Amino acid sequence: MSKSVVAAFTISALLGACTNTYIYDLRRDDQLPRDRTLTLEGEFCTPSPNEVVRPIKIVIAMDASQSMKVTDPNGSRAQAALDLIDSLPQEPEISFVVLLFAGSTSAWLSKSGEDEFDRVIDFSPAERNLLRQRILNFTAPGGGANRDSTDFVKPLSDIYALINEDIALTRLMQMNDETRARYSVIFLSDGQPTTNQDDELLCGDAVRRIRQLRDLADDVRVNTVHVFTPTQPIASTACSFDAGVTIPVAGAVCGIPELPPGACPLLVVNNNAERLNQMATLGGGDFRDFRNNEPINFLNFRFGQVRRTFIFDKLIASNHSAPPGSPLELADTDSDGLLDEQELEEGTLPWVADTDGDGFSDGVEVYFRARGANFTPDQEPLPDGGGVDPGCPPELRGVDSDCDTLTDCDEQIIGTNSRRIDSDDDGVPDSVEFKLGSQPSSKDLPQDPDNDRVPTGDELSMHMDPLVPDSDDLSVTGYRYDVKKKAGLEPDGRQCWTFKISNVAMANTLPDTRDATNPDGGEPLYRRGAGYNDLFVTFSMTPGDDPTGRTILRTYRHTSSRFPVGGIKSPHDGIINIKADDFVAGCQSVVQPSTP
Questions:
Q1: Are strands 480-485 and 496-505 parallel, antiparallel or unpaired?
Q2: Per-position DSSP letters for 481-528, written without gaps between them
């Protein structure tokens, strides 16, 4: 037989084999095909510059002790304060207060004389001139021996109390919403407390705790200013160059080495400047040094803008009812992070997030119990009296201040901020990170702990497990995103985007059968029928003027979609349309479906 005939026969056989072939799916023997996926589509918009207004609050704290008459004899610090006030935009959201400190005395130069902020627009030219005179003519009251001494810890403590109270009052007026105010402190001195306070200033928390208040506000920064502008130059010819003391490098050591008596005055000045420099580093602010009659000014400090533009960062969808990868046989009916089959093993209720009512969800208790914590999700006492944990404070139980689907009690244990949806500012909500297995309190999105060559951030967005190599399953089970920027801006200045998130698989959740009765004698009426899923969608934004600044998020929650329990899913076409206004900045009411 010729080669051409063999080739023709082979080709015809192959073609015949490929035509009417039917590959039988063995799952058809015991499973019906189910379409359980959803598609989320719609649009979202970044806020207009006038929609998100950030208050700017400035504390100008200046040393008024006797030594300042030598280091700033012309009182240029007072003019610097007025120049700063004059340079600030005349906006109702900008306010300030001046604090003078000498010895153990702190004097607030507000209109009321109390520790409170005044708005810039409320100061007339006459009041500004009066403020200048009060700064220059201030004398510490009383006849105490320390009235002309220098103390840094006391005024820093007063500043902490002022900002902390202002944050609390702002929250109260905003119905517990997180304040967006940015606080900036300008701390001016010649840099040397009368007694060495470096243990508290540089090694302790005198400055650090002010900076830590940024967790409760948009930002809190401590800037420092060193002033040494005497009318006569200091004598340095009789000094040894280094006085036998190694001058520290900023940030290299904790504390400033004390110079021996008679050391070169220039070295003393340098040490004082270095102390304030390290304080600024701890406070997250900037340091300025004014010497040799250089005019003092505060104009180069960064205070931020009241009205800001925000840039879209991430769009994240997550089904809290389905574990990572959305396997068909697994579900988390109560979205507590503990699968239904695990709840049966633990003896907890699969439709109640906190079975024992102690404030901590079942998933959090089991997770941390496995890591050595003393948690009992079912609160059943043991014969020896143990087995019962103290639980969360009663006033916090069931509270979710930031509406990120993690309760305040849970966030205390997890280590996240209960008043911020995204504690680590990486654009992903705390609840998504915790329930899918990443770190909600640290920026770990670029990492790849499972070495599957898919970064954690990508796995979270696709609803996959960042701790399990599952890259082979991405094309089958991963969420799929299509986000497009709309041309031009909206009339109100918003930038809008259209999006489509497909392949969002639902889980076969359980019905809530507690007290299942029917007054009409028919089938039992459940509190919540089987198959309902809890979807959580967010988009995050970063400030246009500070890409590394605090993120803000808008959220959308959907609980009425249903797994095809009877063969038909809800909605039947699997499409959920989301309007831009459906994304909210705070909490939104969620109506739980109650019919089976």
A1: antiparallel
A2: EEEEEPSS--TTS--EEEEEEEEEE---PPPB-TT-B-TTSSSPBPSB
Strand, helix or coil for residue 224: strand
Evaluate the CA torsion angle 331, 337, 342, 347 in order and state its sign: negative
The radius of gyration of the chain's CA atoms, rounded to the nearest angstrom, is: 32
CA atoms within 13 A on the CB side of 250: 14
Of residues 11, 20, 4, 38, the one with CA closest to residue 536? 38
Residue 51's nearest CA partner among 253, 400, 309, 239 is: 309
Q: What are phi and psi of 461, to 5 degrees?
A: -65, -30
Q: Are 207 and 283 in contact (CB under 8 A)?
A: yes
The predicted-structure confidence for 292-336, as pLDDT tens digits, reads as follows 777 888 888 888 877 788 899 999 999 999 999 999 999 999 999
E-strand spans in 190-330?
219-228, 284-291, 310-319
Structure tokens at 62: 């200046």
Q: What are the tens digits of pLDDT across the range 166-211?
A: 988 887 665 444 457 899 999 998 878 888 888 899 999 999 999 9
All structural domains of the chain, each given as residue ranges with its CATH number in brackets, are 33-49+309-582 (no CATH), 56-235+276-291 (3.40.50.410)
Q: Residue 477's closest CA among 467, 489, 465?
A: 465
Q: Report the alpha-carbon distance of residue 223 to residue 202 in Å, rounded.
A: 14
**Using alpha carbons only, what angle is made at residue 9 by residues 6 and 11, rounded to the nearest 5 degrees?**
110
Contact at 8 Å (CB) between 422 and 430?
A: yes
Alpha-carbon distances, residue 30 vs 26, 424, 547 (angstroms): 8, 46, 54
Q: How far is residue 407's CA from residue 368's CA, in Å, rounded to a whole number? A: 16
| Strand ranges inside 268-426, DSSP E | 284-291, 310-319
Residue 253 backbone zone (phi > 0: left; psi -120 to 50: alpha; other: beta): beta
DSSP character for 28? Answer: G
